[in-house]
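Both lines are retained for reference:
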Amino acid sequence: MKKIITFGELLLRFSKNDHLRLSQGDYFTCKYGGSEANVAVSLATLGNYVEYVTRLPDTPVGRAGVMRLQELGVNCRHVLFGGQRIGTYYFEPAAGMRSAKVVYDREHSASSELQPGMLPWEDILKGADVLHITGITAAISRSSLDATLEALDVADRLGVKVSFDINYRKNLWRYAGADPRATIGLLLSRCDLMFGDAIEFEWLCQRRQPPFTATDTRFEMQMDEYREWFEQLHSQYPRCRKWLMGMRNMVASSRHLLTALLYTSDDGNHYELLRAPIHDINGVVDPSGVGDAFMAGLLHSVSAFPDDPQRQLDYSLAASALKNTIPGDFNLATDEEINELLNK
């Protein structure tokens, strides 16, 4: 069984029940989440061996977060305890014509104050097959970015493949000298497979995306334009062999059209562009973590179906589609449920 390492910040998410606004009601509910933890939980649910690496305060709240991940099958033996607080965010779900809202409270969190040299990357990555990182870890602080680059140096030295989720969050890049596009580009140049949504691809390459305006599953994709887009990006970042792009059109807050494209190569020379079917999700419960479900689906399916890139793409999309039906950040869809959806 492959060993997968995910590295990032564990968060505590606060929200109100029954689609109340953040300014309404007296009580918050809370759940643990965070992009890299979401990927770890999804991979563990699918039967993979996965270790999660982060820094948390040595408090009941920090310890409870580790306990929750362990309950879901994630190995947390390399979690580092230190610092004063856990990062949090406040989530107001979409309803009708009202868009979702996210308010971050992550400054001076234990993870944002992580420094190079704090984590024993040689031990963590020994025997690992994949290290998964995201642009969020690079955004929260300069020292967190430096710790990420330290991990990449060790991964390259040990021959560990790197997976990367763009995860561009404009409001997080606040430290002095932060350069989001250059930094994301630097990380992307060192990865082997990646995920981003179409808006993030557009931001990264500063090129308008072909519109995805599907209102039903018969929508025709502009594949020639997408191919040009991927070819441009691959010429800039030739190391990456799998480019997964997710696309969503929100017809209503509870109805989303979801699809994906995969630009992939086995040998690094001959690339093919594959498209997945469109999923019409009528009855969205919680779209948080949908991109993380995509990434976990890809990491799992690359191992499960190594010679079938179309199956890899379809599996990733099905995993992401099912996440929309599950409350909270974590995708708890099983391999059996994903394959059942694929075979319908």
